[in-house]
Structure prediction request, 309 residues.
Amino acid sequence: MSVSDQTSRTDSNWLANQPYLLLLVTALCWAGNAIVGRLAAGHIPPVTLSFLRWSLAFLLILPFAWKHLVGDWSAIRARLGTMVVLSITGIGAFNTLQYWALEHTEALNTLLLQSAGPLFVAVWSLILLGVSLTLAQAGGILLSLTGVLVILLRGDLTTLTSIEFNKGDIIFTVALAIFGLYSVLSLKRPNIHGLSFVGFTFGCGAASLVPLLIYELFSRPVMQLDGPNLLTLFYVAVFPSTLAYLCFNRGVQLIGANRAAPFFHVVPVFGSVMAIVFLGERPQLFHFIGFALVLVGVFVASRKPASTT
Prediction:
């Protein structure tokens, strides 16, 4: 093996063991997905968008995952029920519900609801694993939630009185509960390669949407094959799907669901930054205050608990 090959392998191993960096990349990709999903509303039906997203992601990952899938198939088959549930919840159901919700609700509402993600993870962790939040995790989640609210409400708490929850908000809340289940249940996955895991769940998740896709094709206008729609499909297949899920699954594997969950709060922070960069919004004091609170809260909640003697 050459020196350059050894260096490349070392760099890859280093990145694969940096949970906080991996989870930040995940949050960045998912923030972009929320913006793109909102723009796609009315142009690409939700089941179609979700099905094509995961089908393309599956085709992208398959050449790299194939040999691992073959080698890990006996382990996958032994935990097939768990793997199918993970595919349906984290791949099929969550994203379809998210895109459906974005057809019926405002961005502010969904970003507020996004902050409830860690709470659903905590509930599922308690139900399935018997793991309760530590005081530091609870405090960190509360602190980062406060930061998110500062950003979303633009420093004006009276904005809360004008928020009206609608059909889309209810759908998105259900989606978050389902993803919380996926986050915790992923810790019960078989001991297989990361590419085997995403390869199976991407393919199975897409397949689970086929009945809904058939219904949607007969009940709603078909997606137009134009430039913006094709670019949307490319983005959602590569970044919030392939890249983000590889990073998220590895991050949860390294530090656990409860410590990874506060990174949900970084998603709306990145969303605000994207609004500043791409929509021309001017950064204000509340942006910096909120961002600081989120980062401190994530740091506190995601720290490894001190060992007791």
Notes: Residues 46-78 form the longest helix (33 residues). The two ends are 44 Å apart (CA to CA).
